[in-house]
Amino acid sequence: MAPLESGLIKSATSFPPIRACIFDMDGLLINSEDIITDCTNRLLEKYGRPALTRSIRVQLMGVPDSTNGDQFARELADQCQSHFPSCEPLPGAKKLLSDLSHTRSTPSGDRIKLALASSTKSHTYALKTSRPEIKQLLDFFQPDRRILGDGARVRQNRGKPAPDIYLVALQSLNSATDADEKVIMPNECLVFEDSVAGVEAGRRAGMRVVWVPHQDVAAEYETTQKHVLAGRTKTSALGDDWQLGEIDDGWAESIPSLESFDYKKYGIDVL
């Protein structure tokens, strides 16, 4: 099992082939973030308050427990939980996961390994994945490679943008490798994220990142996209800034949807 640390110098201009892909879930693979927004706005309307602005919505996305704490939040949680069973896959999610489950890394020819790293808790995960089509989608990840926010292997109060959940996901992959396989290194991992906090978590983990932002997120960070890709939006105060990237260092890119992913760019051959 690989150590729980990234320990990489991020100034590299060339990269090894990708051997593993690690995915966020909410807002990337399924439309749960839209459900949360809709439930929030219905509740705000009930209490005569204005709807969420784009800026506030963007700040909440991808941050664990960002709506907990008071009566409003508890009522919101109840509404969300009643609607989570209606979650649907987002465009390109099923095809991408299906393709990656039948891919090999060049030039080694090894199969690409997949893991899930989601801040969602076990109870809400069960609700969000209760529909057959969502269960089928998440079946591309083996059960021991689905890392959730309340998992025993994830330290408390170390959610995204801390790198822990992505490093634990990498550990889950390395613990399942064959004896003759080389350990997968962080810079051989490709993280897929929709949130700014998630991008920072992936960068802090020493991994390459594909950012697939919601249109509201993309619009909010249009002028600072390079800072997002470097993990340098200064939205948190974790310290350990050495873990972050540099502007235009090539470790991350943004694409409009999962349907736009370029396999060849990352040395991935679809069988």
Automatic annotation (TrEMBL):
It holds the Pfam family HAD_2. NCBIfam families: HAD-SF-IA-v3. Gene3D superfamilies: HAD superfamily/HAD-like, Putative phosphatase, domain 2. PANTHER family: 2-DEOXYGLUCOSE-6-PHOSPHATE PHOSPHATASE 2 (PTHR18901), SUPERFAMILY HYDROLASE, PUTATIVE-RELATED (PTHR18901:SF42). It comes from Mytilinidion resinicola. One of its GO terms (molecular function) is phosphatase activity. This is Haloacid dehalogenase-like hydrolase. Keywords: Hydrolase. The keyword Oxidoreductase does not apply.
